[in-house]
Design a protein that fits this description.
Elements (H helix, E strand, L loop, with lengths): L2 E7 L6 H11 L5 E7 L6 H7 L3 E4 L5 H11 L4 E4 L4 E2 L4 H10 L4 E8 L4 H8 L15 E4 H6 L11 H9 L5 E10 L2 H5 L2 H16 L4 H11 L10
Helix pairs in contact: 9-10
Length: 236
């Protein structure tokens, strides 16, 4: 089976080369394609991605849902694997994904841990082993069969935030889901630029507000107002 790795980017020159190096090494004997869907980066993201052999797909919208859908549209692999630029998949991830499919699962993710030794972050990461909606997130890297992704209509492009939660909620009503017991390494930069309690409070407020049907405009406004983080640049 061919795997198509889809990476939405905006100004990720500090992360993209390392991620692509890991992907190229892990997938060197595998039929694969790596698609970097870039939303008009003004740094060296595109140059580095091209240098590392990725297929760069430029888009004119700063919206992760839009970017990931565009990547999926041009992908040729039977497996779609969505990876954030600041996440690092675990060793052997492709074989783990294949094993999940062989076991009858259609969609899944990994657990994660932060690139930090702080105890509070280790506690946060611990909960990603549990099958609860609030414990999920795009940082854990999602994989799904391309047929199923297309059948479900992909990500909702009207969502600027919480798009991955919305898709997982829809997908899990029909598909068998697996959490692979290996850790993706995730950047702790959000917690380094904000306090631990501030980030978790904002996450809780956004999660609860989304479930209550609060408008996307309000969610985006609050997220940008309350947090300092590079990914906030994607929100317009």
């Amino acid at each position: 089976m061919q795997i198509s790795v889809i990476i939405p980017t905006l100004n990720e020159e500090k992360n993209i080369a390392e991620l692509l190096s890991i992907l190229n090494r892990e997938l060197r004997e595998v039929k694969r394609e790596i698609i970097v869907v870039d939303a008009a980066s003004i740094d060296n993201t595109v140059r580095l991605a091209d240098k590392c052999g990725a297929r760069v797909l430029p888009v004119d919208q700063k919206c992760c849902a839009f970017q990931m859908n565009r990547g999926a549209q041009v992908a040729s692999g039977e497996i779609l694997y969505f990876v954030h630029a600041d996440s690092r998949p675990p060793k052997g991830f492709f074989h783990d994904i294949l094993q999940a499919f062989h076991e009858g699962f259609d969609i899944g993710c990994f657990r994660f841990k932060f690139d930090s030794s702080k105890v509070l972050l280790k506690i946060n990461a611990y909960f990603t082993r549990f099958d609860r909606e609030m414990c999920r997130g795009g940082d854990q890297t999602f994989f799904i069969k391309r047929f199923e992704f297309n059948r479900l209509g992909g990500y909702n492009e009207r969502l600027k935030i919480m798009e991955e939660y919305a898709f997982m909620r829809k997908a899990r009503k029909e598909l068998k889901f697996k959490i692979i017991p290996k850790d993706v390494i995730v950047s702790a930069r959000k917690y380094e630029e904000n306090s631990y309690f501030r980030v978790n409070l904002v996450n809780l407020v956004i999660f609860a507000s989304f479930n209550l049907g609060v408008s996307q405009n309000w969610l985006v406004k609050m997220y940008k107002k309350l947090l300092i983080h590079p990914k906030v640049e994607v929100l317009e």
